Amino acid sequence: MMIAVNGIDLFCDTTGDGEPLLWLHGGMGCGADWQFIFKVPPAGYRIVAPDLRGHGETTNPSGAFTFRQCALDLIALLRHLQIDRVKAIGLSGGGIALLHLATMEPSLVERMVVVSAPPYFPEQARAIQRTFSPAMLGEAEMERMRGRHTRPGQLEQLFASVRSMADTYDDVNFTPPLLSTIAAETLIVFGDRDFLYPVSLAVDLRNAIPHSYLWVVPNGGHGPVFGDAAARFVETTLSFLRGGWNA
Description:
- The protein is an alpha/beta fold.
- The chain has helices spanning about 65-80, 95-105, 125-130, 140-150, 155-165, 175-180, 200-210, 230-240, and strands at about 1-5, 10-15, 20-25, 45-50, 85-90, 110-115, 185-190, 210-215.
- The protein is built from eight helices and eight strands, in the order ββββαβαβααααβαβα.
- It has an eight-stranded mixed sheet, sandwiched between helices.
- Helix 1 crosses helix 2 (about 95-105).
C-alpha cells in the first residue's frame, strides 16, 4: 500500500490478522525486516510495517530527514488506517521515531518495545556518523542495501542523512521531563556491548519513562534481536505486549 502524506509517497505493508502491531525498522533498513525476527506474523497481530521516509519504497523528494518528521508521517499513516491505539516495536532509528511518536501522541501508543534507541547521540556515535560510508559496511551488506533501496541516488541520500546527524542536536534530544510524558508501557532493550550507545543510556531511559522495564541483553551488540537472539526476543516481547507485567 502506498499513501501520499507530508510531501512523500509512504509505502506500508500489512501482514497477518488481529490487533495492529507497528514495526519500525532501523536506519538503512526497510519494513520487511520484521521477517528476520518473526518467521510468520505472531498470532493475534496484524503487523503494520512501513518503510520510513527515504527508505525502501518510501520517497523523500526533499532529501531532508529527521526522526521527528518520521513520527509525523507515522501519525498520518495510523490515521489513514483508522488506528487510534497501537502496540509497537522500534529498532534503533525506528525506536527513535517511536520515542517521538510516544511523546507527541501519548494516548496513541499502548505498549512499545524500544530496541537500541538512545535519548541522545553520545560522542562515540557521532564519531561514526561523521565518517559513515559504504566501506564501513562491506560489499556483502552493500549488496543487501542496493536490493532494498533501488531508486537512483537513494543510497547516497541515506548515507548523507546519517553523516548530517553528527552535527544535529535538536532531533534526538529526549530529556527526562519529555520522556516522563510517555504513557505507554515500555520495554527498553539494549545490548551491553553496543558500539554506538553505552548501556548507561538505557538506564537513563528506564529512570525517565514512568511505566518502563529494562532488558539488558548479555554480550549483546547494537540491535541484539537478530540471528540466534531472535527466539528469545520474540518470546520476551510477545509476553510483554500481551500485558500482565507489573512494575
